[in-house]
Design a protein that fits this description.
Blueprint: E1 7-12, H1 16-31, E2 35-36, E3 45-50, H2 55-74, E4 79-84, H3 85-88, H4 92-99, E5 105-107, H5 115-125, E6 129-131, E7 152-156, E8 158-159, H6 170-174, E9 178-179, H7 182-194, E10 199-203, H8 220-228, E11 235-239, H9 248-256, E12 263-265, H10 273-279, H11 285-298, E13 303-310, H12 317-330, E14 334-339, H13 357-380, E15 386-394, E16 402-406, E17 411-414, E18 424-432, E19 437-441
Parallel strand pairs: 1-2, 1-3, 3-4, 4-5, 5-6, 7-10, 10-11, 12-13, 13-14, 17-19
Antiparallel strand pairs: 8-9, 15-16, 15-18, 16-17, 18-19
Helix pairs in contact: 8-9, 12-13
The structure holds S-adenosylmethionine (SAM), iron/sulfur cluster and FE3-S4 cluster (F3S).
Catalytic activity: N(6)-dimethylallyladenosine(37) in tRNA + (sulfur carrier)-SH + AH2 + 2 S-adenosyl-L-methionine = 2-methylsulfanyl-N(6)-dimethylallyladenosine(37) in tRNA + (sulfur carrier)-H + 5'-deoxyadenosine + L-methionine + A + S-adenosyl-L-homocysteine + 2 H(+)
Subunit structure: Monomer.
Organism: Neomoorella humiferrea
Length: about 450
Amino acid sequence: MAGQGKTFKIVTYGCQMNQRDSEMMADLLQAAGYEPVDDEAEAGLIILDTCCVREKAENKVYGKLGQIEKFKSANPDLVIAVAGCMVQQPGAAERIRQQAPYVDLLLGTHNLAELPRLIEEVRKMRRPVVAVQGGEGPVVENLPRRRARGAQAFVTITYGCNNFCTYCIVPYVRGRERSRRPEDILKEIEDLVDQGVIEVTLLGQNVNSYGRDLENKVTFADLLTMVNAVAGLKRIRYVTSHPRDFTTELVETISRLEKVCEHVHLPVQAGSNRILELMHRGYTREQYLELVTNLRRHIPGIGLTTDLIVGFPGETEEDFQETLDLVAKVEFDNAFTFMFSPRKGTVAAGLPGQLPQEVKKERLKRLMELQNKISLAKNEALVGEVVEVLVEGPSKTDPSKLSGRTRTNKLVIFPGDAELTGRLVNVRLTKAQTWLLKGEISRA
Ligand code: SAM
Ligand code: SF4
Ligand code: F3S
């Protein structure tokens, strides 16, 4: 086999889409005989799976390339590949080649399946290779059997995005939305369950619009109903939900299906109608608030999380106050908060009223302070409850303890045997912090 005796390391940036792509590349490489290693310094092949959603994400990749250049001087046989979203941007390949001429392979998001062959090409030809296909790219099925990595798995249901939110680069680098056929998704999940998986997270930039492009129309609610029927599966999660496409039918379906977890990640982005319109989000703050009320009415105790952007072009202090007001009204369990980062080629990058970095920073600080208070209060209200936790393994911050997540997606740390990893246990919550809860296994 081509990879016999060779090693690789993949460094992943960005969202779950990239995590899933990285897993797929690892499966392809292992099927070709390559062995994974933890330490980059020991790898014969290093792949950076990149993100370009904000400037900071790109800077991290250039920083990393600088670090691994020295491995190349020590080992001229080392193959360095840059894959992922960054490579898909117009002109990016040239930019990367200029800044890091020692990169051997540039691999677009639609070319992942060709990875083993392209590495061989690099090795044989001893020259850099660029494989970046624009547009949509095919929905590739029947790749080598995917390996389960523990009890949890990401399963992609749609690729790309049709929404063109004015700040966002994703539709440009991932192409238009393409849904996988339900039978392919179900087959993959059944195979994962056979390998011991009990929780799947269905992935798409907008899972709610799943199936619109398929010949036999299937809605996301239909898909959830089918996945719910897979024997042996215990939990179903899904990201990301677009508020505009969250129908009442879907709310009712989710409340009915026992395996679908009580958590929705529902990015709102901003609280001012004027900014929401400039962002091209397709809903008003009133519609968003109504959806939240509807979700909470149908699914009591549901965990709600969101994404928020501060400092969108033209955002006034009044607009920002409306974001703070919405956050206070909804009381999210948690929020990912970002400063607007202009992305070349998007509409928002060219809008008037770009705000200085200090204004963005100061707004971000105020927003985070408010959300942190809310997160803590929401967690404190749960102390004393007994909740079901899927054990993920030793905690990263305190390896003597275990960590896991509730159905509502709360992180819980508690003492216990590492052998419980991958199992569902009942935990009594004893202490609340902003980002997590502490507890102890409940035998009751
Ligand atoms: N499709 C998902 C959605 O609609 O929310 C996720 C998109 S993106 C991978 C994750 C988050 O990054 C977005 O929800 C948004 O808050 C943020 N984001 C995207 N583009 C951004 C930009 N140019 N500047 C700052 N934040 C951005
Ligand atoms: Fe980007 Fe909007 Fe698509 Fe999410 S829905 S990926 S924010 S364009
Ligand atoms: Fe995800 Fe970043 Fe690409 S957020 S889709 S990895 S640009």
